[in-house]
Design a protein that fits this description.
Layout lengths: L2 H33 L4 H18 L3 E2 L10 E2 L2 E2 L11 E5 L4 E8 L2 E4 L11 E5 L19 H6 L1
Antiparallel strand pairs: 1-2, 3-7, 4-5, 4-7, 5-6
Helix pairs in contact: 1-2
């Protein structure tokens, strides 16, 4: 087995383990709500831990503050898979520089956000939507998105 295949196998096993932990944590939240509703702070901490672990196992990268977890979540999209709408400012991942840069895609070319000339600082391999920035923290009861693990389990 090649080193790359071993690494991918390990990542798949880690993701499966993280997914199992997320499901277990959410089950524990249900049990605690039923049997120990007075432990509201502990229950919220477990729910936040499950949401954060689910975030990592789903392959999301942390950027700036997120209303629930304290970190905004950014999903990177390979330019092989999709391109953003023409002219919409996004984050670009520049391979050579190993850095993020704001810019946009238009008619087959990438541009610096402030430029009308094609981007020439390196190859854009991935892009992501811009973070939305800080927002008021909602109550956990208002959180209705399903865990990525729960979607996979159905």
């Amino acid at each position: 087995m090649s080193a790359l295949t071993q690494q991918r196998t390990r990542l798949d096993e880690d993701k499966a383990h993280a997914c199992a932990l997320v499901l277990w944590l959410y089950e524990q939240v249900k049990v605690y709500r039923r049997l120990a509703p007075g432990l509201k702070d502990d229950i919220e901490q477990m729910e936040e831990a499950a949401a954060l672990l689910d975030t990592y196992q789903a392959g999301l990268a942390l950027a700036t503050p997120h209303p629930l977890t304290g970190a905004e979540l950014v999903r990177w999209v390979s330019v092989q898979d999709a391109r953003p709408d023409s002219g919409r400012t996004v984050l670009m991942w520049i391979d050579e520089a190993q850095t993020v840069w704001p810019g946009y895609h238009h008619r087959g070319h990438w541009y610096d956000r402030e430029s009308v000339h094609p981007f020439d600082l390196g190859t854009v391999s991935h892009w992501a939507e811009l973070p939305t920035g800080p927002a008021p923290i909602p109550s956990l009861a208002a959180r209705h998105e399903p865990a990525a693990c729960l979607e996979d389990a159905s």
